[in-house]
Each structure stands twice: as structure tokens, then as C-alpha cells.
Amino acid sequence: MLIKRPSDIRPSEITDREIYRARRRFLQGAPAALAAAALPGLFSTPALAAQKLPGAGKSPYSTREPATPYKEVTTYNNFYEFGTDKADPARAARTLITRPWTVTIEGEVKKPGTHGIEELLRLAPLEERVYRLRCVEGWSMVIPWTGFSLSEVIRRAEPTGNARYVEFVSLHDPRQMPGQRSGVLDWPYVEGLRLDEAMHPLTLLAFGLYGEALPQQNGAPLRLVVPWKYGFKSAKSIVKIRLVEKPPVSAWMRAAPGEYGFFSNVNPAVDHPRWSQARERRIGEFLKRPTLPFNGYGDQVAQLYAGMDLKKYF
Ligand SMILES: Nc1nc2c(c(=O)[nH]1)N[C@H]1C(S)=C(S)[C@@H](COP(=O)(O)O)O[C@H]1N2
Ligand SMILES: [Mo]
Predict the structure, then answer these.
(1) How does pLDDT run across 283-311, given as a tens digit for each residue?
(2) Is residue 109 part of a domain?
(3) Which of 18, 55, 121, 171 has its CA 20 to 30 A from that of 128?
(4) What is the pLDDT of residues 216-271, one digit of tens each?
(5) Can you give the CATH number for the domain in which 63 is found?
(6) Distance in Å, CA 264 to ligand 1 centroid
């Protein structure tokens, strides 16, 4: 992963929650335009990004820290399927067609199956979860996601006694994803969690951000968000969820096993081989701030790793 200073981001561009609410009110007042926008074009579905999601309840897991402005959240992205520059996905991901979309749940489950995105969206009540996201590169954001716990999906698939890990596979389609014509990663993008991590209530299946359907560059139509791990664990545009016995080999482990471990818990005490992880730059802020163990979610998740050497299992 490349490190880039967010020099293009002005601190004056902070959108506070008031502007967020105003934006929501505006969207609520425009149902006809949104209905028309829901018809996907043949080669791009940019309008889907503005599609409002059904109302979402509040979550006790939300941070009260101010959310990173919508503009930054949707224009400063890592999504290598659309290029390696932070600005690439916002431009290039318009070719990603997000409807129809299905997700296959397979492997060590009693109820395997393929489910349409609309069906998945209705599986459980949507919640707004304002989470910190810490990229392994040393920057962070606060993002108001909309979704529900991944456990809602896994529980219904009924894992067998052999299921120990969960593998997540992102879409592989070089026609829609120009970055996949390059060998920067061994495609498709694959990530994995231990089953207890995947079942943890904090682990979110996200369908939206800022109250709207996910923009393509943020991983439409559905993605993972694992807030206590480095951002790359949060796979975007997922098409397959496999319950497996053995730890999955993620795309990043395959590319650089010495640099990216399976767990990748945010840990200021364990440096990346090429840089320190002690501090981070919150996008929109000038001074760096200390990085917190488990990205500040230690009270909720530290017990998952009781007795483990987190330097060895990085
Ligand atoms: N399929 C896929 N998922 C991905 C990535 C990617 O390149 N491809 N990048 C990861 C990284 S490194 C980060 S930091 C987050 C960024 O999410 P955001 O752009 O919505 O902030 O997505 C993660 N999920
Ligand atoms: Mo990242």
C-alpha cells in the first residue's frame, strides 16, 4: 500500500452533523427524482449513490466524534480495483453496476444460498453506526455507516461445527473494474475473519453511508466494516461469503506476507515493517493524533484475543 499525504484536503471543508441533517432533510424532500434515478443505465449507475436508504435506528456503538465530511469520505478512497491513487475510485468506479447484485453464502453452512441485494437489505433492521476507520497507511476517518451486524446473515446460514473462519470475496470483473487489468493484487480481493470476529456485533455489513446507498467508490452495494482492524480488512463490493475451516489467505497476505498479517488489529505498539503505527492523521485535521489499541474499540473486542501474542499474530 502506498502512503500519500492528504494534501488536497482543506480543514475548512469539515461538514458537521448539522449539514448532514440538512442534507438528509433535502433528500427526504426529493422522492420523485430519486425514484427516477433508481433506473440503472447500461454502463454506469452514478445516480444510485444518491438513493436514500430506509430509516436507520441509532446504535450504542456509534462514536460521538464529528464525522469526516461526505466529500472526503467519497473522494479519498482505497479501492484498488479502480486504481491505486486516492482520487481514482471516485472517478473510475462509475462503471461498477450494482443492480442486480447477488451474494453467495457457501461452505461450512447448513443453509447455503445466493441472495439478491434487496433481500439482504431487508434481513434485519438498519442501524446508523458512526465508526472510526483507521487505514494501515496512517490516516483515519469517522464515517456514519448504515447497515446491520454481519452476524444477522451468518446466523441465518447456520454454520456447521467445522466453520472456524469466514472468507469474503469482492467482485471480480475486469470489464467493470479497470484496476483488475493490472497485477497490483492477485484478483479477486479476498479478506478473512475468524468466526468469532465475524459474529461480533461491531462487525458491520454496510449498505450505506450518510443515510444514502453506498457510493460505488465506497464499496457498493454492500461491504464489510470491521472498525478495530486496519481498513483493508473491510472488503468492498462483496459477492461471496464462505465459511471455512482454515484461515483464508487474504489478497494482501498473498501480496506481502511479511507486511500484512491475518489479524491486522489496529495496534500502535506493532509497527508496519516500513513505518510506525503509533500515530495517525484524521482526515481534515492538521496535527497527528495517537492511534489507540484496537482503534479505540478495546473494551468491546480485546477479550477476543485474550492470551494471544499480538506481535506474533499481527
Ligand atoms: N475490494 C476492496 N476492498 C477494499 C479495498 C480494496 O482495494 N478493494 N481497500 C481497503 C482499504 S486499504 C481501506 S482503507 C478501505 C477504504 O474504505 P473507504 O474508501 O470507504 O474509506 O477499504 C478497504 N476495502
Ligand atoms: Mo487502508
Answers:
(1) 999 999 999 999 999 999 999 999 999 99
(2) yes
(3) 171
(4) 999 999 999 999 999 999 999 999 999 999 999 999 999 999 999 999 999 999 99
(5) 3.90.420.10
(6) 14
